[in-house]
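Board work, copied verbatim: NAD-dependent succinate-semialdehyde dehydrogenase
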Amino acid sequence: MYGDKYNFSFINGEKVQLAATSEVINPATGEVIGIVPDGGEELTRRAIDAAAQAFPAWSKRTAGQRASYLLDWAERVLADKEALAQLLSLEQGKPLDEARGEIEGVAVYIRWYAEEGKRAYGEIIPASRPGQQLLVFREAIGVVGLITPANFPAAILAMKVAPALAAGCSFVLKPAEQTPMIAVALVSHLLATGLPAGVANLVTGDPAEIGSTLQADPRVRKIAFTGSTAVGKILMRQAAENVQRLTLELGGNAPVVVFPDADLDKAVDGIMGNKFENCGQVCNGINLIYAHEDIHQALVEKLAERIKALKVAHGTEPGCHIGPMIDPSYLDKVETLVNDAVEKGAKVVTGGYRIMEDGYQDGYFYAPTLLDGVHADMELTRREIFGPVAPVLTFTDEADVLRRCNDTPYGLAGYVYTRDAARMFRMIAGLQVGNLAINGTSLANPQTPFGGVKESGIGRVGGHQGLEEYMELKYVALTLE
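↓ predict structure ↓
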């Protein structure tokens, strides 16, 4: 549909096309909707060269000057919101209303970091000796490599690009191979602001080759990556060679715990809004629902009623609640996990199958699914589902459910529903996660630090901490006498 409209990378402020191209697939139909350059080591080296050349001058600009480009970028994104949302929905599969919300979120993050960049304060520390001043400066880290995922390809791009630019870094961006066109469109708007050549560079193509090239070059001082824990571990190993800084937002196994004193209607609203957003393809999405045995049956019945009412359709179709999964490998994984659970005794309350009826048979559709009778021997309790499947487990004891929630190598997010204030604080203290919501399931805010513990990542995205991820501290002991 888009043909070669987005068939270019950006190097040193210019569009670059290659003879070799990769196809972009509409996950709702399996059809080719566009092509992008199939770049690799050579193109990535050119991008690093441009970013390295542009960095000194860009980092010396004032925070206010850098903010002006970011604010202009946000305005251009909002002015083109509908076209960008249509592209995002078609390329990624999510419902159009969700795509519109994501594009609006792009502007929110850009604007927030445009202002936060002006508040990257240093320090004056009381000296230990007479005639001395101890100073701490914050400086841009240098050229950074940004690697974005397919599930929120617009929002997470903004969460990385905006703080990098606000801090004074230049960058090379590698978007997910499933969703490169929205990245090309957003960077096109960024360059339209008159951003100096070489500050922003984008390379599409082979992820392993581009990633290894970024990490092999000592001029690239940081990698910011959102994706799987398996890939994050590879990046960590490769980063050791040049002692490269990392921000990694990785996989999760997020529980929601619903206690018997919870407002069940409020809990169901929160679970539905989180679990089935973006067809369940959310890193901090609920993976396991722990329902206290006293309210277990009531919770399952309320969830079943709501899940059965979800409309599965192409993302651009009016009234769509659930679109296709992004990639056939994601679909295969969900099928495997559900089949394993059913074989081990789980009950399918609703869903539990790939949708193959006319109009959907060539896409990557999976029915919204509710499983009951789930237990710890099932594979989906240990692996991130990353799909529209809600497994329900029961519990009776607070200490036991806390232990079960923590019995995982992951620690990205957790959710708790209770009216007991003391219990709230026990769960806050006990849950081993980087992000926790009580009586709600929304965690996305530009002013807050989002990130995981254990194998869910290192570093933080959002907040002043997200800006500091792109800066180094320089301590100066200044003797005046």
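The chain has two domains: 9-250+456-478, 254-445.
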